[in-house]
Amino acid sequence: MDISVWNHKLPKKGDVLVAEPFMTDTNFEHAVILLCENNDEGAYGFVLNKPSDCFLCDSLPEFENINARLYIGGPVEQNTLHFIHKVGDQLKGSIPLGDELYWGGDFEELRIMLTTGLANPDDFIFFLGYSGWDKIQLKEELEHNAWAVTKLSSGEIFSGNPSLLWKNTLVNLGGKYKIIANFPANPRLN
After folding, report:
1. What is the pLDDT of residues 42-99, one digit of tens each?
2. What is the per-residue burial (b if ≥16 Cβ within 10 Å, else e) of 160-178?
3. Which of 48, 52, 63, 133 has the most other CB atoms within 10 Å of its CB?
4. What is the enclosing helix (H) or strand (E) of 114?
């Protein structure tokens, strides 16, 4: 795991933001966010560890037999569907994020691949909405130590246990982050 600790480094596409333990915005409490873009216009990504109670087959009839869980990608436009995956160039229009991790692609081709068994639903994570920042907002949040910037492998992202992702990522950062990983969401419960 490539580590950059709580600092003022500007993250790039494929980096991961890890929320500080006492984040006051409930949308990002203990969040781990994969950045898909960060440029002069702003940043865009998905919360990797907030599964919803909904499934792809419940939301879109054209995916009737695909029981892939939907995640809450962030508070912005939660009526939109987004996805990351590990199938790469097999899905036309995919954008590489690094380490065999891709974002988006041709939606009709995705439907065909999943409904015919050409692709495994476990190689995809689907999100309702996204997390977004304007061009200076993320920089300011980093200056206020709201996020740690690091990288995760596609294996870590697709590990299958989103409830432990925040804690495990901090433990892997080591040092003081290993201690921070055990902070309760509400310090009064300590």
Report:
1. 999 999 999 999 999 998 999 988 999 999 999 999 999 999 999 998 999 999 999 8
2. eebeebbbbbbeebeeebe
3. 48
4. helix 107-115
- Which tokens belong to 50? 């907030």
Distance between CA atoms of residues 18 and 33, nearest Å: 7
Secondary structure of residue 15 in the 3-state scheme: coil
What is the length of the chain?
A: 190
Tell me which residue of 69, 122, 54, 124 sits closest to 94, measured CA to CA.
124
With residue 125 as reference, give the H or E element that holds it. strand 124-134
User: What local confidence, expressed as pLDDT, does residue 6 receive?
Assistant: 44
Q: How high is the pLDDT of residue 159?
A: 87
The residue with tokens 């790469």 is: 88
Say yes or no to pLDDT of 1 above 50. Answer: no
Question: Is residue 108 classed as helix, strand or coil in its secondary structure?
Answer: helix
Cα–Cα distance for residue pair 97/167, rounded to 1 Å: 23
pTM of the model: 0.90
User: How far apart are the C-alpha atoms of 64 and 125, rounded to whole Å?
Assistant: 17
> Considering only CA atoms, which of 130, 177, 129, 122 is closest in space to residue 150?
177
- Enumerate domains of the chain plus CATH numbers: 3-189 (3.40.1740.10)
DSSP code at position 87 = -
Task: Please identify which residue in the block is written with the tokens 């910037």.
Answer: 149
